[in-house]
Design a protein that fits this description.
It is built from two helices and eleven strands, in the order H-E-E-E-E-E-E-E-E-H-E-E-E. It is α+β, with helices and mostly antiparallel strands. It has two domains: 30 residues; 179 residues, Lamin Tail domain (Immunoglobulin-like, Sandwich). The strands form three sheets. Strands 1-2-7-9-8 form a five-stranded mixed sheet, with no helix packed on it. Strand 1 and strand 2 form a beta hairpin. The longest helix is centred in the first third of the chain and has 25 residues. It starts with a helix and ends with a strand.
Length: 217
């Protein structure tokens, strides 16, 4: 092979590679890195994280949700109600609602902004709440599963109470210093699926539209 033929071969290979990369990007098989400019970042950037989780129920039906965690080790409670989550693949965004700290069945909930303390987390479900409101989990919460389904299911520990009526448990136990768990169940009431079947960028933004966290899958 002559020197000229070698050069022509390299050039052809480069053109083919460029065309192939362009096709892969346009087809969604390869995703460029998601870059965040300094001016786009919230002052809270890096102090909270989001991640997508999938649970397979006994009937093999999958349930997807987000885990929003306040990963700071110290500091004051951080309000998350009013923040938004955007799906770049689905072209939708949803707002984090207010919630009810001490939920009781059969009582119209008193809603207020949801706040997380450092180390706490919120499980964000795209669906509607089985009990009509978002709420903070407590040692009595597993008793709610006698009548409603929750995904993911509530964690059982040596402190949780699963027997009897939920309201009776709340009245009896709510003064217990260990009554609340460091976890909120938040329901986004989205009419559309928040998750893509393949790949997506999910972006958490504050009330000013600045980016707090991002997750790609």
């Amino acid at each position: 092979m002559t020197r000229t033929q070698q050069i022509v071969g390299v050039c052809i290979a480069g053109v083919v590679c460029t065309a192939l990369c362009a096709w892969l990007l346009s087809s969604g098989r390869v995703h460029p890195p998601f870059e965040i400019g300094k001016e786009e970042k919230s002052p809270l950037f890096g102090s909270l994280s989001i991640a997508r989780a999938v649970e397979i129920a006994e009937n093999e039906k999958s349930s997807e949700y987000l885990i929003l965690e306040y990963i700071a080790h110290e500091g004051t409670p951080q309000k998350i109600s009013g923040w938004t989550i955007e799906s770049t693949a689905q072209k939708i965004n949803v707002r984090i609602p207010e919630g009810n700290t001490l939920f009781r069945q059969g009582v119209v909930p008193t809603l207020s902004p949801i706040s997380l303390f450092p180390g706490e987390r919120a499980l964000l479900s795209p669906q509607s709440s089985p009990v009509g409101a978002s709420f903070q989990s407590n040692i009595c919460s597993p008793a709610l599963e006698q009548f409603q389904n929750f995904y993911p299911a509530f964690t059982r520990t040596d402190r949780t109470i699963t027997e009897g009526f939920y309201n009776d448990c709340v009245e009896r136990e709510n003064t217990n210093p260990q009554f609340f768990f460091p976890e909120w169940r938040v329901f986004l009431n989205s009419q559309d699926s928040l998750f893509s079947s393949e790949h997506d960028h999910l972006i958490l933004k504050d009330e000013k539209g600045l980016i707090i966290a991002e997750y790609s899958y």
